[in-house]
Amino acid sequence: GFGVLVDYQYQPDMAKSIQRQVKQAVGLAVYRQRPYLLIAYSPTIDGAVSTLTVLKGYGISSFIVDSREVVMLTPAVTMPN
Question: pLDDT tens-digit profile of 34-46?
Answer without folding.
Answer: 999 999 999 999 9
